[in-house]
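Internal ticket - ligand job 420, adenosine-5'-triphosphate:
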Amino acid sequence: MAKPKATSENIYVGLDIGTTKIRAVVARKNQEDGVDILGLGSAESTGIRKGVVINIDATVNAIKDAVHEAERMSGVEIKSACVGIAGGHIKSFNSRGVIAVKNGEVMQNDVTRVIESAAAVNIPAGYEVLHVLPQQFILDGQTEIKDPIGMSGVRLEVEVHIVTGAVASAANVTKSCQRAGIVVEDIFLEQLAASEAVLSDDEREIGVCLIDGGGGTTDMAAFNRGAVYHTAVLQIGGNNFTHDLTVGLSTSEKEAEKLKMRHGCVWMDMVSPDDVVEVASVGGRPGRKIARPVLTQILQARAEEVFTIFAGEFQKKNLAYMFSAGVVLSGGMANLEGVEELATDVLGVPVRIGRPSNIGGLSDMVQDPIYATSVGLALLHAKKGKSSNAIVTSTGTSGSEEKMFGDIWSRMRAWLAEFF
Ligand SMILES: Nc1ncnc2c1ncn2[C@@H]1O[C@H](COP(=O)(O)OP(=O)(O)OP(=O)(O)O)[C@@H](O)[C@H]1O
Ligand SMILES: [Mg+2]
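stdout (structure tokens):
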């Protein structure tokens, strides 16, 4: 089969500005209506705290590093991306709108109006609406309608999930990207991006909950009948697990992080009492040997706290009955040994680890739950379909194509210069 022609429009980039890592993923639409991964890059993130930019310069430099690495691997000049947003400032709620249908048949204009009426809610000063996600339309009392256009009726209602965030936080994300030379095509709530990469349509239809455990926060998104019903951000993440180890084992953050990555487990039944791990001490003292169950006990206590909070959230919002397809875990936390077992025990529903799926190209390089958000952002960028990224080296393209994209790019640059 012939390779799809690479044009500046079909190269898409996801940029995940995380608390511990900034990750860029480059993807290209393929002929099967899917995407191929062309390259990826990552850099240590030091300017982000609990999902929020606290140091613009450090964030700009890390974005540049991740983007350059992804450019080198993919042969693409990255100019635009879809970017994730997270943090404790995110507040979400459900809302409802109602209108009278103008001509007895629902038109696009009626759908726009009813969604606008649902979104017309009081939002605190300094906050803006990030997403208005329709759950179901109701036409003259008939519920569970996904697309009412063309249907006859007089009273159109919609139920939506609204995500809001602090204007300043969104502005700092955009500013950091712009200073790093990246145009932000769109901003998405990070757990919605991760859901795009690791959940199937079937799961979203019958009901599923994604929990993405990152370094700074643990974010959830609950789906049912293909729509988003609830989103929440918990300000506890992998950094808290690491910190517990520094205190519990009297060691440095660096050593604690290393121990967690190498020997971390959150389910006591999986470790043998005879397992021993080496711990470097602080202040130049000699290292010690500790039983692995001690390490596990500390991590399991923190993991239990995280999932107990989500179990409480499920109960409070009456969500648990929705999750016929259970819970899917992504982010670095999903790599902790025993986390499936622990989460199943605490939440009382089936749990699986979510790895980006249904993608081609260098897909094996992103087969890790830590890439869920960045791959999801690239998929959302591809869905949006607007991009100014161009192939600039011979990777995946012929010489003549290379020249063609060079020309397109210089034309676009001139065109963009008129606007900025
Ligand atoms: N193999 C592993 N075993 C245990 N923990 C891991 C592993 N890989 C990553 N982590 C932990 O996961 C966390 C990072 O996860 P991730 O890369 O998803 O976070 P992030 O996107 O940078 O942060 P956030 O989403 O909170 O902004 C760190 O705390 C790290 O220690
Ligand atoms: Mg993350």
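Auto-summary: The chain is about 35% helix and 30% strand. Residues 292-316 form the longest helix (25 residues).
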